[in-house]
Amino acid sequence: MVSLYREVPLETDAASAWETLRDSRNLARVFAGVLTDVRVEGDLRTVTFANGSVIEERIVAVDDAHMRVAYAVRGPNFEQHAASMQIVDESGGRCRLVWISDFLPDDRRAMVEPLMDAGCAAAARNLGR
């Protein structure tokens, strides 16, 4: 199983970052340049990437106390894919995004890692706005 872990410093306060991240309807803006569309129906969200790929994700939990959202990618590309994004408060009105993605099969790393890295860069640019 591949486990990818990223931390992204954000130039905004944790409450503002969490307010934006917790609502899936904001993800196309947060990850602009990587995502082009996000549709939400109940606990399912359909995410369209800039490269045209479309995936479905199930929101597993939205934890306001810990500012964490957990989700699972559904579909034929993965035997398993569980991920979470968490906002961690830091001093001085700053915070950081912690993103963890665990998946099988291992060969999907070549597909997931570049998208995750591009997503981190987009979040750093866009989350505090």
TrEMBL record:
SUPFAM superfamilies: Bet v1-like. InterPro entries: Polyketide_cyclase/dehydratase, START-like_dom_sf. It comes from the Bacteria. This is Polyketide cyclase / dehydrase and lipid transport. It comes from Paraburkholderia caffeinitolerans.
